[in-house]
Each structure stands twice: as C-alpha cells, then as structure tokens.
Amino acid sequence: GAGVSQTPSNKVTEKGKYVELRCDPISGHTALYWYRQSLGQGPEFLIYFQGTGAADDSGLPNDRFFAVRPEGSVSTLKIQRTERGDSAVYLCASSFDGGSYNEQFFGPGTRLTVL
Amino acid sequence: AQKITQTQPGMFVQEKEAVTLDCTYDTSDQSYGLFWYKQPSSGEMIFLIYQGSYDEQNATEGRYSLNFQKARKSANLVISASQLGDSAMYFCAMSHSGNTPLVFGKGTRLSVIA
C-alpha cells in the first residue's frame, strides 16, 4: 500500500513569503504529526492531529505557523512571513489509533529553503 | 518533560561485527515507549524497534535488539552482523503511551566499513 506522501519534496522561497506544505497520510491512520528537522539535529515535534482536530500544537514555534486537517486525512502546514531560520526539512508522520503504542510512519519530508 | 540523550555523534564498525548505539532518557512518566529509527542519506525515517516501559523482555527485530535497562534509564540499540547498508543516522526516541508525539535525540551517525 501507499506510504505517507509529502509535497513538494523541495521548496525554495524568499524571506517574507507564504508557503504551504502538504501531507497525505496512510489511509485509515487517524493520527498525524508534523516535525521539523534542522541540519544535524533530530526531528522536533510541531503539531499533532487526532482526526480533524489538533490534539497538541505546543511545538509550533510562533503564530506564523499553522496547520489544518479539515477532513481528517490530508494535512497542510502553513507558514506565513517566512524567515531564514525556518529553513529545514519538514517531516510528516501518521499512525493508527489502537494498541498500547503506535508506530509512526514517516513521509520523505519537504526540504524548505528560505533565501 | 521527556529528554533523550545520544552521546555518540559518530560510530564506526567493521562489516559483520556487532555495534551498540547508546541512548539514555529522562522522564517522570511510569508508562512510556522507546523507539529507534534509522535515517539513511535519502532522508526517510525508518522504524526499527520498540520497547514498552512495562515490557520485561528486551525487544528484538531480526538483527536489531534493544538493551533496555530501566533502572539506568538506558535503551541501547544493538545491531548484530553489521552490513554496509546499515550506514545511516540512527535516532532514539520516546513517547508517552498511545498516540503521542515522539521526542528524539540528536542521533548517531553509523558508518560500516568493509
């Protein structure tokens, strides 16, 4: 079956611009996560959805970052007024809600470069 | 708050030898999960192995095993019979039980030498 997909794979933008990053999770997975991975670091949590609602958005660095998942499947991470420090790989993961733990399946990521 | 520490920025191992990647964690939770992921140069995160805090036996998945020492708060990954394709970044991570976000360490870059 299809894994988690993310588009675009690469995005180059200019400082101050608005960008949208898309994540298509594995079909049937109710939980969806966004992480950000800077060079030489491990992924850092941004936001987590359970169905359509954001269950935890404590990792969003500031109000320029926003994410939606209107139908409980595809999610879009939106970044306003981009800054050079936003350059990173944005990873999306999904998992099935059941059992004592839930393996998170990751997408290939979107590499964002802010010039 | 949960925290993962990986103290080995890089490791080298000879092909066919075993290697241990260190991971220590800090949490006040009684119930938690520990994970190891592999990230090749292609960038995707590949799940390797999971250990629950209440699991009494160490987890094993093929050539991967997790040396879980709860009192020492360590969850080291052991890779047996290393292969050239094992060269990658390895991340230790933890979560509360159930569907919760992962907290990752900084990773260890493993290089397997022929």
Describe the protein.
Chain A has 115 residues and is mainly β. Chain A has strands at residues 5-7, 10-13, 19-24, 31-37, 44-50, 53-56, 65-68, 75-79, 88-95, 105-106, 110-114. Chain B has 114 residues and is mainly β. Chain B has no helices and twelve strands. In chain B, strands 2, 5, 6, 10, 11 and 12 form a six-stranded mixed β-sheet that branches. In chain B, strand 8 (64-69) and strand 9 (74-79) form a beta hairpin. The model of chain B has no long low-confidence stretch (mean pLDDT 94). The A-B interface holds A 30-31, 33, 35, 40-45, 48, 50, 55-56, 59, 89, 91, 93, 95, 97, 100-109 and B 4, 33, 35, 37, 42-47, 50, 52, 91, 93, 95, 97-107.
- Our count of helices of chain A gives 0
Radius of gyration of chain A: 13 Å
Q: Oligomerization state of this entry? A: heterodimer
- Helix segment tally of chain B: 0
For the largest interface, the chains and their residue counts are: A-B, 30 and 26 residues
Separation of the first and last Cα atoms of chain B:
41 Å
Helix and strand element order of chain A: EEEEEEEEEEE
List the secondary-structure elements of chain B in sequence, H or E.
EEEEEEEEEEEE
User: SS-based structural class of chain B?
Assistant: mainly beta
Separation, N- and C-terminal Cα atoms of chain A: 37 Å
The counted number of beta strands of chain B is 12
Record keyword descriptors for this entry:
heterodimer; A: 115 residues; mainly beta; seven-stranded mixed beta sheet; four-stranded antiparallel beta sheet; 11 strands; 48% strand; B: 114 residues; six-stranded mixed beta sheet; 12 strands; 0% helix; globular
Put the structure in a nutshell.
The complex is a heterodimer of chains A (about 120) and B (about 110). Chain A has about 120 residues and is an all-beta fold.
